[in-house]
Specification:
This protein is of the alpha+beta class and 336 residues long. 70% of the residues lie in helices and 10% in strands. It has a five-stranded antiparallel sheet with strand order 2-1-5-4-3, with helices on one face. Strand 3 and strand 4 form a beta hairpin.
């Protein structure tokens, strides 16, 4: 249907008014559903982040342990190389020592880059000092042997300083590996707790959503039945009227009639609907002007017209009509 020009509605003081598109209950249910979905999204993202964090922690622990084992292996290689050199005086036996001396700085640098715990960083600083001490002892022994001071080199070995430094390195490495395991275990427990909580929230949220959907369906069904009942009641009142009643679109077409209209025109209801309202009067132009006044002013009262029956009989009527609107206040047509 074409809409009535806004000017006519304003002139009649019955302009369109805003109205809530949904019942309050449905709107609140929709808002609650959106909030539940947002909460589920937040906890799902949190669970995903926790799992990613746990995976990253596991990878970090593996890398730290790998580097610590590599460090111990390099120190053992350095010790083996310098002892072989002490026994034989052959520089070829220093190859493991030289390789270890070159590899150890890189291992320590890698450890500094992947360790993020403050306590572990403190242990790493201690470990670096012990490693430097051990390598310095090895270097002194090598240089003394090269200088022909075999007795001086042996005295360092007999002092046990090298073995003591190596033992402290081993103890500290074990502590660092155990600390990494504890950090990983703590993060795994936190992840499991968060996962359980997230699961509970997901199930709870799903239950709430199902409840809201069921409630919305119930309210919609109840509202529909109420509308149907109201519509049937309104229809029964219209049909109970002995006077001819009709609804007219903005184009002047009949959209509905009651039994009184069928009786006064002699035309079946299904044939009346969709035809021009003014065609059933002796003065079509006057009838057209009448419903146009309704659209312009919002109503008309005691407007004289004469209806022509299909068999030619005439019926004088006083035309009383007003506009009717939808829930948003838009004029839909004329009820006469």
């Amino acid at each position: 249907m074409a809409e009535v020009k806004p000017s006519s509605a304003h002139q009649s003081g019955q302009g369109a008014k805003s109205a809530p598109p949904l019942p309050v209950g449905l709107r609140l249910g929709f808002i609650a559903a959106v909030l539940v979905v947002l909460i589920l999204a937040v906890f799902s993202q949190r669970s995903l982040n926790d799992r990613s964090s746990t995976a990253a922690s596991l990878t970090q622990t593996y890398k730290v342990r790998l580097q610590l084992e590599s460090l111990l292996s390099s120190l053992k290689d350095a010790e083996t190389g310098q002892r072989g050199f002490q026994l034989t005086g052959d520089e070829q036996f220093l190859a493991p020592y030289v390789e270890a001396a070159n590899a150890i700085p890189g291992v320590l640098k890698t450890l500094r880059g992947i360790i993020d715990s403050a306590e572990q960083r403190q242990r790493l600083e201690t470990l670096e000092r012990l490693v430097a001490e051990k390598m310095q002892i090895n270097s002194q022994q090598v240089e003394m042997k090269r200088a022909g001071d075999a007795e001086g080199a042996l005295s360092i070995i007999r002092s046990g300083r090298g073995n003591a430094a190596m033992d402290r390195v081993r103890v500290l490495v074990v502590e660092m590996e155990a600390a990494e395991e504890q950090i990983l275990g703590s993060r795994q427990r936190e992840s499991e707790e968060a996962s359980v909580y997230s699961t509970l929230v997901s199930w709870g949220g799903s239950a709430v959503l199902l409840f809201l959907v069921a409630a919305a369906g119930l309210m919609t069904s109840r509202d529909y039945r109420a509308r149907e009942k109201a519509s049937q009641y309104a229809r029964s009142l219209i049909e109970a009227s002995l006077d001819p009643l009709v609804t007219i679109s903005p184009e002047g077409k009949i959209t509905d009639v009651n039994a009184g209209s069928v009786k006064v025109t002699g035309v079946p209801r299904e044939k009346l609907i969709g035809t021009d309202f003014s065609d059933y009067f002796t003065a079509p132009d006057q009838a057209r002007e009448g419903y146009q006044q309704v659209f312009a002013k919002g109503f008309v009262t005691d407007y004289p017209l004469t209806i022509r029956h299909a068999d030619g009989r005439l019926t004088d009527v006083l035309y009383n009509a007003s506009v009717y609107k939808d829930v948003q206040g838009n004029v839909l047509g004329v009820f006469a």
